[in-house]
From TrEMBL:
Stored Pfam families: Peptidase_M90
Organism for this UniProt entry: Nitrosomonas marina
Protein name as it appears in the record: Zinc-dependent peptidase
Record PANTHER family: MTFA PEPTIDASE, PROTEIN MTFA
GO cellular component: cytosol
InterPro entries assigned to the protein according to its UniProt record, in alphabetical order: MetalloPept_cat_dom_sf (IPR024079), MtfA_fam (IPR010384), MtfA_N (IPR042252)
GO function terms (MF aspect): aminopeptidase activity; metallopeptidase activity
Family annotation (SUPFAM superfamilies): Metalloproteases ('zincins'), catalytic domain
Length: 256
């Protein structure tokens, strides 16, 4: 019954609304859409409309959120769940967008029980069951040539948090092996950390060495933005991400 109501609600929205054509034309240049077929683009548009109904996007520091910004953010948030479901983003509502990098001022307790005060400059943040915080800049909406995508990064954290908090392992599907995921990611993470130790100028953003959770989020960015790079650097990680996201973006780039 819940599913039927849910489906009814979804159909009602999709019958009544559409993404304005001039906005859609502006966002289709985004690199993470490359090679998508007509069916994938149609399903992505439907997800964007449902996402925008389910979430609230607010600007911080008087930043005005335009319709084009809403679609741009929703589009990139929906890429990871294109073959999953909007239900993966069910336990939170708000997205807060800052006009530029923001200061994170917080306290945390380390393993020995000592409380530290930290102040970091951040471009995004995802809170457990809370909001997603993003920054809006030229790079958020443009093809930049790098694999960096703060929106995909933060939404990957949201998926990761669905299984035992942010630990680099999202809820795997029944046909996946937890052991294989763990082995593949542990090994790749260790390799990457030693690469960064030797030379921080790595092809993949060195920030991935921060923690297993950041490794998963950064690998997810690379998976969707420059999939061939990930396949070349960490083929087994690519394979696990393809199983989890149920997408093969490398094959899409080869179609072009
Ligand atoms: Zn992160």
């Amino acid at each position: 019954m819940v599913w039927h109501l849910n489906q009814w609600w979804r159909n009602r929205i999709l019958e009544r609304e559409e993404i304005p054509r001039h906005i859609w034309q502006k966002v289709t240049h985004l690199r993470c859409l490359r090679g998508m077929n007509v069916d994938e683009l149609r399903r992505l548009q439907a997800l964007i409309l449902l996402f925008l109904h389910a979430k609230v996007i607010n600007g911080a520091h008087d930043l005005e959120i335009t319709d084009e910004m809403r679609v741009t953010i929703a589009l990139q948030a929906c890429i990871p769940i294109l073959n999953l479901d909007l239900g993966y983003y069910d336990d939170w509502i708000e997205i807060i967008v800052y006009p530029g990098e923001f200061i994170l001022d917080y306290e945390y307790m380390d393993e020995t029980g000592v409380v530290h005060h930290a102040r970091n400059i951040a471009s995004g943040e995802a809170w457990l069951s809370g909001p997603v915080i993003l920054t809006w800049s030229e790079n958020t909406s443009m093809h930049t040539g790098s694999a960096h995508n703060v929106i995909i990064h933060e939404f990957a954290h949201k998926l990761d948090m669905l299984h035992e908090g942010a630990n680099g392992c999202p809820p795997l599907h029944a046909d996946m092996s937890m052991q294989t995921w763990h082995d593949v990611f542990s090994q790749a993470y260790a390799t990457f950390c030693s690469q960064v130790e030797r030379n921080s100028d790595t092809v993949i953003d060195a920030y991935a060495a921060e923690s297993p959770a950041e490794f998963f989020a950064v690998m997810s960015e690379v998976f969707f933005e420059t999939p061939l790079v990930l396949k070349q650097c960490f083929a087994a990680v690519y394979e696990q991400l393809a199983l989890f996201y149920r997408q093969d973006p490398a094959s899409r780039t080869l179609v072009e």
